[in-house]
Write a structure and sequence with these properties.
This protein has a single domain, classed as Rossmann fold (3-Layer(aba) Sandwich). About 35% of the residues lie in helices and about 25% in strands. GO terms for molecular function: ATP binding; ATP hydrolysis activity; transmembrane transporter activity.
Amino acid sequence: MTTAAAAVYDPQIPGGASAVAASARQVTKAYGAGETRVTALDSVDVDIQRGRFTAIMGPSGSGKSTLMHCLAGLDTVSEGRIWIGDTEITGLKDKQLTKLRRDKIGFIFQAFNLLPTLNALENITLPMDIAGRKPDAAWLDQVVQTVGLADRLKHRPTQLSGGQQQRVAVARALAARPEIIFGDEPTGNLDSRSGSEVLTFLRRSVDELGQTIVMVTHDPVAAGYADRVLFLADGVIVDEMHAPTADSVLERMRRFDGKRTS
């Protein structure tokens, strides 16, 4: 990507990470070798700004989920370097990477991944309980209020709607105060009303709690909640949009599809 953002920030410069939550430099991800080699990401440069909501879009096979997985340390890269804050994660050993993901990264996926035997509050605090860490009571209360779960904390997942279960998943990601949260189609299994609720809470977590969110989505409406949209095609960031709306994203995707079919 030939943008000013990619040129301005270098994680190796002392103090340069203050405004950047995650960064990739010349990241390539390939599968296979020789004639069967498939390049999912092709020399990608990108910075994820701290305290902002970034959406990643693109057609199936564009590399959007691969980019998110590499940025989050869920997948390795074939070439290039990735930082979370000022910590380079490429080359970290498994134990170090597991600790970094636990301490600095939150995840929200399509599947809610809630334990049915635990109530909402217990599901929210589970990762910290496993890590032997005590939640910050004031922060936990603020998170619960932000996602609107104060009257549902004693309910088990089967007693919650799909939207409420995903809000529990959002609160779980927020509760440990990670540096960055990654969401892979977090509203993909929800109806439009529940999806809108979850996206509103994600937006509020950025505006009111200063959270950093990166969300992969195929939905222009969901992307309209973000501050910035990155568009991928064939493993390359081909465009970006700031202050998007659902209509502007949809129009961009239509033009993008037109170029692909022409």
